[in-house]
Amino acid sequence: MTVFPEGFLWGAATAAYQVEGAAVEDGRCESIWDVFCRMPGRVVNGDNGTVATNHYHLLDVDLALMSELNLNAYRFSVSWPRVVDDDGGVNRKGLDFYERLVDGLLDRGIRPFLTLYHWDLPQRLEHQGGWAQRDTALHFADYAQVVHEALGDRVDDWTTLNEPYCASLLGYAAGVHAPGRREPRAAAAAVHHLLLAHGLARKVIDKRVGISLNLYAVDPVNPDDPVDIDAAWRVDGLQNRLFLDPVLLGKYPSDVLGDLAPLGFADHIRDGDLALIGAPLDWLGVNYYTRHRVTGHAGGRTPEWIGAEHLHNVPSGLPTTAMGWEELPDGLFRTLNRLHTEYPRLPIHITENGAAYDDAPDAAGFVEDRDRQRYFEQHLHCVEAAITAGVDVRGYFAWSLLDNFEWAEGYAKRFGIAHVDFGTFARTPKLSGRWYARVAGANALPE
To answer: What residues form DSSP beta bridges with 218?
Structure first.
């Protein structure tokens, strides 16, 4: 039996837009995802995430599910447009939902991990330029203050941003996430303004603070080809180092600054910004799903492709998930070891790890998802190996607690350890969920 350190956190994670629903209830305002999902070709199952898993109305059901799965931690995000109205005022009804959530977690002995931003920017701010505008970072700090005043007495673990790579480069350059813009210069500005927002929020919150970054192992297709090696380093720069270096080292990597120079990236950096962005953190969140396998012979090495993952991923023949992502557990070990050897050491939480598969429930709604169970087991063995090698990993959050609205993929891609019937909203733990509950209860992997 593989035993984890005493006090290790076993959690699951969700995001507000993906699970809550209630999009026009109790004063919630419009977000960029509401608008993005109404764009031509985006209609999925008729509701585009406005109902999602109905978590807003089924909160008690989901809290009971967390207890059933033996979770001792839960990572959730607060919906900015639910708690701040379009005039910039506090929406008390929106905050009340999160107070009920936090109180329900604490009553069950489940540690809340609160994420301030999981991509649902208020549409009113996008109308003013969104993350391409510096003022959005200042508005974020005001929003962080609102949430901190309401929940800071009960929540000790705070995440400022989830995956700023996606919010900036996928949303403003590739256009495959909200707000759906294909403007590389705006994307470059969004990178810095998101990180500035992180730094400003860090000043506001006097609890344990981290940031969750989606990190990848990045490999050249041909490790002996200088062209592929160069391409892999550039992709690593945009995917990993562009966010790790300013947060952990207080500076942007010089080679990436050079690559982004044609987009005017440096023009957005003001005196004092990097000191804010690089202020010491209490922990780092790692979201890991797969790797990038890169060639420099396929074109697309200019800044215009930032955020367009499909332009540099080359299949290798390894098994893939329903998202088309390679299953490479060793990439998680390599990522953790890299953080341990190349960056200042601080506690790490695996804030997302999981896989989508084509789940098929039986008549009772049960899903025998052996592929997902295997995915978790293999990746958790790599987490344990990293801990044995000296990496200070304190917790693991399965993505996701529920099948949910999977962003641009709609409802077709299921990541949950609990199956959701989107007709009745019934929740049924899958085989992987039952297995995960046993692991969490024992704080150990079975032989």
So the answer is: 292
Query: Strands (DSSP E) along 32-176, which ranges?
Result: 73-77, 111-117, 157-162
pLDDT, average across residues 82-111 = 98
CB atoms within 10 A of CB 99: 13
> Does 378 show up as a binding residue in the annotation?
no
Could you give the percent of the chain with pLDDT greater than 90? 88
Look up 163 and say whether it is catalytic. yes
Q: Which fold has domain 2-445?
A: TIM Barrel (3.20.20)
Q: Which pLDDT belongs to residue 231? A: 86
User: What's residue 302's pLDDT?
Assistant: 45
Q: Which of 62, 46, 51 is nearest to 21 (CA)?
A: 51
Give the burial class of 46: count Cβ atoms within 10 A of its Cβ; 0-12 exposed, 13-18 middle, 19 or more buried: exposed
**What mean pLDDT is predicted for residues 205-216?**
98
**Residue 342 amino acid letter:** E
* 8 A C-beta contact, residue 222 and residue 228: yes
Chain centre distance of CA 285: 9
- Checking if the pLDDT of 149 tops 90, the result is yes
Tell which residue, 54, 34, 51, 30, has the closest CA to residue 42.
34
Look up the pTM and report it: 0.97
Nearest in space to 108 (alpha carbons), one of 63, 53, 162: 63
**Residue 9: its H or E element:** strand 9-13
Determine contact, residues 263/303, Cβ cutoff 8 Å. Answer: yes
Q: Are 271 and 339 in contact (CB under 8 A)?
A: no
Say whether 30 is catalytic. Answer: no
Q: Is 289 labelled as part of a ligand binding site?
A: yes
pLDDT, tens digit (0-9, with 9 covering 90-100), for 236-271: 999 999 999 999 999 999 999 999 999 999 999 999
Count of Cβ atoms closer than 10 Å to residue 373 Cβ: 18
| Residue/partner pairs of 378-383 with CB below 8 Å, 24 or more apart | 378/327, 378/329, 379/288, 379/329, 379/332, 379/353, 380/2, 380/439, 380/445, 381/2, 381/329, 381/445, 382/329, 382/330, 382/332, 382/333, 382/336, 383/332, 383/333, 383/336, 383/350
Residue 185 and residue 189: Cα distance in Å, rounded?
Answer: 6
Catalytic-role residue among 309, 327, 352, 384: 352
Q: Do the annotations mark residue 406 as ligand-binding?
A: yes
Read off the pLDDT of each residue in 339-348 and give the average, rounded to a whole number: 98
DSSP H or E run through 218: strand 217-220
162 annotated ligand-binding residue: yes
